[in-house]
Amino acid sequence: MTDDRIKTSRVTLRANDGHELEGYLCEPEGAALGGLVLVQEIFGVNAHIREQCERYARDGFRVIAPAMFDRVERGVELAYDSAGMSRGIELIKPLQAENYLSDAGAAVDFMGDLPTGIIGYCFGGSVAWRAAAALPVRAAVSYYGSNAVNLLDLAPKCPVMAHFGERDVMIPLEKVQVFRERHPEVEVHVYAADHGFNCDHRRQYHAESAALARARSLAFLKQHVR
C-alpha cells in the first residue's frame, strides 16, 4: 500500500574510503524537521527496518538506512530465526568499527546541511553510540546496543538516549548500571522487556515498551535534531 505522505527510494552512498553502499531513503511530505540515519540490526535492511524508516518519515524526518552489510554481501534481508541470526553473526565478523563509522558517516554526509541524528537497534544501537562520539550528529538513540555497555570510554559529543530491556540476557542489568554510572549525561531507560522488544516481527516484541520507547525517542529527536 502506498502512502502519499512519504516518498521512498534506493540511493547510493559513498563512504570516505571509497566504498559504495545502498541506502533506503524515506522523505516526508513538505520540509523535513531534520535528518535521521537509522541503523539496522544484524538482520539487514529488512522489512522491519524499512517500516521504522517510513514511520519516522511520517513524523517529519528525512530518514535513511545505510546497508551496513554491503561491504560483505549486498541485498541482505534476514528472517528473525536461528538461521537468520547465525548468518547475521557471520556477516558482522569481517567488519571493523571503522567500517561501521565510515558507512554511517556516508549516510550523515548524504543529508548535506540538514541537521541530522542517528538511531540504531541491536547492532545498530552500538553503531549509534560510537557515532555519538565520532560523527557530526545532533543526537543519538541506542536501542539495546550490546557493545555500547562495553564501550565505556567513549565520550559522546551530542545528547544520547539509550533503551534497554531488563530481561535481556545479552545485556545484563549489571552492565547497564555501570554504563549509567559512567555516563550520567546519557538518558537511560530500562523496560520490563527482552532484547529486540521494539520489533513486531519477532517473538520478543513487547508492545507497551515499544510504544513508550518510541514516544520518548521521537520527542528526544524533535528536541535535539533541529
Helices and strands, with pairings:
Blueprint: E1 6-14, E2 20-28, E3 34-39, H1 47-58, E4 61-66, H2 82-92, H3 97-110, E5 116-121, H4 123-134, E6 140-143, E7 160-165, H5 173-182, E8 187-191, H6 207-224
Parallel strand pairs: 3-4, 3-5, 5-6, 6-7, 7-8
Antiparallel strand pairs: 1-2, 2-4
Helix pairs in contact: 3-4
Description:
Helix 5 links the parallel strand 7 and strand 8 (187-191). The chain has 6 helices and 8 strands. It has a single domain (6-224), classed as Alpha/Beta hydrolase fold, catalytic domain (Rossmann fold). 34% of the residues lie in helices and 23% in strands. The chain is an alpha/beta fold. Strands 1-2-4-3-5-6-7-8 form an 8-stranded mixed beta sheet, with helices on both faces. The longest helix is centred in the last third of the chain and has 18 residues, at 207-224. The model has no long low-confidence stretch (mean pLDDT 96).
| CATH third-tier fold name | Rossmann fold
CATH level-four homologous superfamily name? Alpha/Beta hydrolase fold, catalytic domain
Number of beta-strand segments:
8
Q: Major β-sheet, in short?
A: 8 strands, mixed
Helix content: 25-40%
| Bulk shape | globular
Name the strands of the widest sheet in spatial order. 1-2-4-3-5-6-7-8
CATH architecture: 3-Layer(aba) Sandwich
**How do the helices and strands follow one another from N- to C-terminus?**
EEEHEHHEHEEHEH
The number of distinct helices, counting runs of at least 4 residues, comes to 6
Poorly predicted segments? none
Cα-atom Rg, whole angstroms?
16 Å
